Amino acid sequence: MAETLEFNDVYQEVKGSMNDGRLRLSRQSIIFKNSKTGKVDNIQAGELTEGIWRRVALGHGLKLLTKNGHVYKYDGFRESEFEKLSDFFKTHYRLELMEKDLCVKGWNWGTVKFGGQLLSFDIGDQPVFEIPLSNVSQCTTGKNEVTLEFHQNDDAEVSLMEVRFYVPPTQEDGVDPVEAFAQNVLSKADVIQATGDAICIFRELQCLTPRGRYDIRIYPTFLHLHGKTFDYKIPYTTVLRLFLLPHKDQRQMFFVISLDPPIKQGQTRYHFLILLFSKDEDISLTLNMNEEEVEKRFEGRLTKNMSGSLYEMVSRVMKALVNRKITVPGNFQGHSGAQCITCSYKASSGLLYPLERGFIYVHKPPVHIRFDEISFVNFARGTTTTRSFDFEIETKQGTQYTFSSIEREEYGKLFDFVNAKKLNIKNRGLKEGMNPSYDEYADSDEDQHDAYLVRMKEEGKIREENANDSSDDSGEETDESFNPGEEEEDVAEEFDSNASASSSSNEGDSDRDEKKRKQLKKAKMSKDRKSRKKPMEVKKGRDPNAPKRPMSAYMLWLNASREKIKSDHPGISITDLSKKAGEIWKGMSKEKKEEWDRKAEDARREYEKAMKEYEGGRGESSKRDKSKKKKKVKVKMEKKSTPSRGSSSSKPSSRQLSESFKSKEFVSSDESSSGENKSKKKRRRSEDSEEEELASTPPSSEDSASGSDE
């Protein structure tokens, strides 16, 4: 026989709501752990008095009764599990697990039985329905009638709020059956009545949730918050946990009370009661009980007269009355030395406290996450700045919490804490060699392949290559069309020819040297101007007729699969679609990827072939453009050669004057030599006119080269 039995997906019926969790049966006890709240019910084996197996809406259920009158109900069992449970009860608990079905006749008259905290309406020996009296919020009586009102169940869409019982009159003297019925209900009902004096009162405490200043009156069974506008009565049975958390400024303390069910104000539900204390506030407290009562009830945990810090007194009294431990931060210490981390949750900034068994965030809205309900955590890139990161927590129920704007200096401390608690880190392995810099921060696995980012990078590379091609072309054109070295050599040759023609005059040499220096200075100035204008030149745009670059294998697949992804995920945004596509591509098999790689290779070959044809056609068109430019330059030179000669004849230059006044000794007696001199003069004049024309209309690099060839 097994020592323990465990059942998952078991539902516990508590105040009309079904809470799922895990049920474990051992030799010593029966333990149920609520998956939602983490609350644990522990029933000792010696306290069990009765066990009933019955058919319910969710299959089969187990009803357990204890010696102190408590009733526990667990549903969600299968019919085949009855034998296993029955044998376990016989062997370890010495109890017979009885089968008892509910009556389904539909009659509305019968007998009411009160057993412990349960009201049972029976027809014959079979129960029709049962009402836990702890669900009753009010009980009123009328003539032959009793009305029960119930607490509203926030987790259910429809809640039972009222039941009325007709109680027929009896012949017994001195006994009113209606009053007897009502007294039995009220003795076990969860009706809060502030009878008697409070044990102690704390005046004007600052409360963050619900916001305001409240007087807290401590009663034996409940807590009464009395404010200027609202009053709240909180039974101690609804308190789940107590937290005492130091503020980051080390001058204040948070005292947090976790509640289930929460307190209500209209449509607002408060799952946490948060009080804020200053460490400097002290108080002297006297309990409204004599010393014997204090000793008997609290067993040394409280004394009649106490003094100390206000937050210590409140937490000490609450711990004794609620009978629960106070949770404080563990060994975690942040970058600044505090036991918490400054961050933002939703729209508000607050403090995240890493505890020994969970995380708690205060204060708006308060959040408590236990380690056992965490599926994984994730360290993600900050959305607005590189100086911070986000800490994401996803629970096993699929709820995600994102704590953002955490300083990057806190990363190492938080990562070590999460790692030490053996939580599942979604992007584990990114801390090796970690320096406290943002570049080392991990991104989530979903974002490791960002399809949108890949596409932007590819387009950026294409733009850079086009820009480099156009800048190289323009640089070659400027170098060819403007070459200072060649111009300086041309200028020197021109002056050399002039020098040979008039080398007899020393004064002329000095004048020509000055002119030479001026010409060189002008050439340098024009060179500087052109070099300054270079950055202002507009880059060539991409030719619209040029073939388009081929797409990568991933982009080909994305274009083919985009519509399918949209149909599978209706309403998906562009960014989410890119992320989803990246995930699918990442998880695709090698064989499928090879198919798209082949398509990408075929597209690349077609692109290269088209580029060769395009470049060949562009070369022929550039040659035609060059020939047109040459013809235009020749036509201009022919038109302007005539007026240049006329101007030279009307205004004789100094060179012509010097040649016309040559002495007879200089002229050779041979007539042919004089004829040759005349032809040389004519040729020199035509060259001068051509140079003037070319200077007025600067040609392109190809024109200047072709002109020199001619």
UniProtKB/TrEMBL annotation:
<feature type="DNA-binding region" description="HMG box">
    <location>
        <begin position="547"/>
        <end position="615"/>
    </location>
</feature>
<dbReference type="Pfam" id="PF00505">
    <property type="entry name" value="HMG_box"/>
</dbReference>
<keyword id="KW-0234">DNA repair</keyword>
<dbReference type="GO" id="GO:0003677">
    <property type="term" value="F:DNA binding"/>
</dbReference>
<keyword id="KW-0832">Ubl conjugation</keyword>
<dbReference type="InterPro" id="IPR048993">
    <property type="entry name" value="SSRP1-like_PH1"/>
</dbReference>
<dbReference type="InterPro" id="IPR024954">
    <property type="entry name" value="SSRP1_DD"/>
</dbReference>
<keyword id="KW-0235">DNA replication</keyword>
<feature type="compositionally biased region" description="Basic residues">
    <location>
        <begin position="515"/>
        <end position="533"/>
    </location>
</feature>
<protein>
    <recommendedName>
        <fullName>FACT complex subunit SSRP1</fullName>
    </recommendedName>
</protein>
<dbReference type="GO" id="GO:0006281">
    <property type="term" value="P:DNA repair"/>
</dbReference>
<dbReference type="GO" id="GO:0035101">
    <property type="term" value="C:FACT complex"/>
</dbReference>
<comment type="similarity">
    <text>Belongs to the SSRP1 family.</text>
</comment>
<feature type="compositionally biased region" description="Basic and acidic residues">
    <location>
        <begin position="577"/>
        <end position="624"/>
    </location>
</feature>
<keyword id="KW-0007">Acetylation</keyword>
<dbReference type="Pfam" id="PF17292">
    <property type="entry name" value="POB3_N"/>
</dbReference>
<feature type="compositionally biased region" description="Basic residues">
    <location>
        <begin position="625"/>
        <end position="634"/>
    </location>
</feature>
<dbReference type="InterPro" id="IPR013719">
    <property type="entry name" value="RTT106/SPT16-like_middle_dom"/>
</dbReference>
<keyword id="KW-0227">DNA damage</keyword>
<feature type="region of interest" description="Disordered">
    <location>
        <begin position="458"/>
        <end position="710"/>
    </location>
</feature>
<dbReference type="InterPro" id="IPR035417">
    <property type="entry name" value="SSRP1/POB3_N"/>
</dbReference>
<dbReference type="InterPro" id="IPR048985">
    <property type="entry name" value="SSRP1_C"/>
</dbReference>
<dbReference type="InterPro" id="IPR009071">
    <property type="entry name" value="HMG_box_dom"/>
</dbReference>
<dbReference type="GO" id="GO:0042393">
    <property type="term" value="F:histone binding"/>
</dbReference>
<keyword id="KW-0238">DNA-binding</keyword>
<comment type="function">
    <text>Component of the FACT complex, a general chromatin factor that acts to reorganize nucleosomes. The FACT complex is involved in multiple processes that require DNA as a template such as mRNA elongation, DNA replication and DNA repair. During transcription elongation the FACT complex acts as a histone chaperone that both destabilizes and restores nucleosomal structure.</text>
</comment>
<keyword id="KW-0539">Nucleus</keyword>
<dbReference type="InterPro" id="IPR000969">
    <property type="entry name" value="SSRP1/POB3"/>
</dbReference>
<dbReference type="Pfam" id="PF08512">
    <property type="entry name" value="Rttp106-like_middle"/>
</dbReference>
<dbReference type="GO" id="GO:0006260">
    <property type="term" value="P:DNA replication"/>
</dbReference>
<keyword id="KW-0804">Transcription</keyword>
<comment type="subunit">
    <text>Interacts with MYOG (via C-terminal region). Component of the FACT complex, a stable heterodimer of SSRP1 and SUPT16H. Also a component of a CK2-SPT16-SSRP1 complex which forms following UV irradiation, composed of SSRP1, SUPT16H, CSNK2A1, CSNK2A2 and CSNK2B. Binds to histone H3-H4 tetramers, but not to intact nucleosomes. Identified in a centromere complex containing histones H2A, H2B and H4, and at least CENPA, CENPB, CENPC, CENPT, CENPN, HJURP, SUPT16H, SSRP1 and RSF1. Interacts with isoform gamma of TP63. Interacts with FYTTD1/UIF. Interacts with SRF. Interacts with NEK9.</text>
</comment>
<dbReference type="InterPro" id="IPR036910">
    <property type="entry name" value="HMG_box_dom_sf"/>
</dbReference>
<keyword id="KW-0597">Phosphoprotein</keyword>
<dbReference type="Pfam" id="PF03531">
    <property type="entry name" value="SSrecog"/>
</dbReference>
<dbReference type="GO" id="GO:0005730">
    <property type="term" value="C:nucleolus"/>
</dbReference>
<keyword id="KW-1017">Isopeptide bond</keyword>
<feature type="compositionally biased region" description="Polar residues">
    <location>
        <begin position="697"/>
        <end position="710"/>
    </location>
</feature>
<keyword id="KW-0158">Chromosome</keyword>
<dbReference type="InterPro" id="IPR011993">
    <property type="entry name" value="PH-like_dom_sf"/>
</dbReference>
<feature type="compositionally biased region" description="Low complexity">
    <location>
        <begin position="643"/>
        <end position="660"/>
    </location>
</feature>
<dbReference type="Pfam" id="PF21103">
    <property type="entry name" value="PH1_SSRP1-like"/>
</dbReference>
